[in-house]
Design goal:
The protein has 373 residues and is mainly beta. It has a single domain, classed as Porin. 6% of the residues lie in helices and 55% in strands. It contains three helices and 18 strands. The strands form two sheets. The chain has a 16-stranded antiparallel β-sheet that branches. Strand 13 and strand 14 form a beta hairpin. The protein is elongated, with a radius of gyration of 22 Å. The chain starts with a helix and ends in a 5-residue tail after the last helix. InterPro entries: DUF6268. This is DUF6268 domain-containing protein.
Amino acid sequence: MRCHSIIRIGLLGFVLLEASELACGQVYPPPAPTATDTATNNLGNQRRFANPSVLGMGPSKGLVVRYERMPRFGVSSSAQVAGLKDFSTEATKNARLSIKGYIPAWNRPHLKVIVGLSYEREEFQFAQLPTSYELYDNIENKGLKSTAAQIAVIRPVDDVHWYLVRIKGELSGDYTSKELTRSDYSRFTAEAIYGWKRSPNFSWGVGFQYGYTFGRLSLYPAVVYNRTFSPRWGVEALAPARVTLRYNVNSNSLLYAGYSVDGLNYIVHLSRTPLERKNPDGTSDVSKVPLRTLELRETEVKFRLRWERELFSFLWLGAEAGYRYNYAFDAFDRTNADREKIIDSKLNGAPYAGLELFITPPRKLLEKAGVRR
């Protein structure tokens, strides 16, 4: 995997990440709050600006490397169109690797702009090789990838009101380096939140997300709710996609518990002959173009426990474990206008575990800037 450029960019930008005071931990690096948790300008008039963060949240993340894996689990598929068969097998491997980097491009009390780059790869292996089933044979050990760039803007209006906007473009599927320019793989997502900072311990907002969190491209409402109830306890939420309860063990260790809904969307090219659409009597449906690609929509809910611990002043370890419930793993027609579901699949629920290393601004640098974790 050639991810060296992403790593170098992340290393270059991590020391500036106090700018990443954003609301959505799943999308943005969580903030390292100031003592008053309100940004002030540098002009001496001490004007205060609100932001979505609250006291007690974890450190900012500049470069993140994560590996996640699930043990063997059952897989079953049922055909939704004529000409295909049902099939079941076991997945002996389902692993994910992700590398993400965040770079503050502009950092002012009244305006912060963060650029993010990421590379993610998901792999499957199945018990029978080949499976003789079109979908599984085409994702076996192939590498379902997502390469993305995003820009996030947070704009404090005054000492109470704030809003943020994020726009993300990505290439998602089983592409190779020679196919990066193909429009088939292109994806676009966005979100916008308008919020209120009620106190250093309470910030919330409402808005929308436009993306693939629930499998298909859709627009749905979003609610940000960040609140610290005591020096130990707090909650961080981007509902309905993610809700997390936080426990601050001490200044360099945190525990989390909650759930997240993750949606993945890939374009899969069929390596064998095109898949012909059939009539119920088994004859070819001449009104439908044979399929050379499928759109794979994967939606899952994770119930998780997470522990974060400072290893050095700039390096943290994250360990996560939980249970994954798969809601959908379905393949759709991307060629014909009906966009019909071709295969309905289910992945059995399974435990999972993940390890993560992330770089943060060094503690001394934050102390000089008047920021505390």
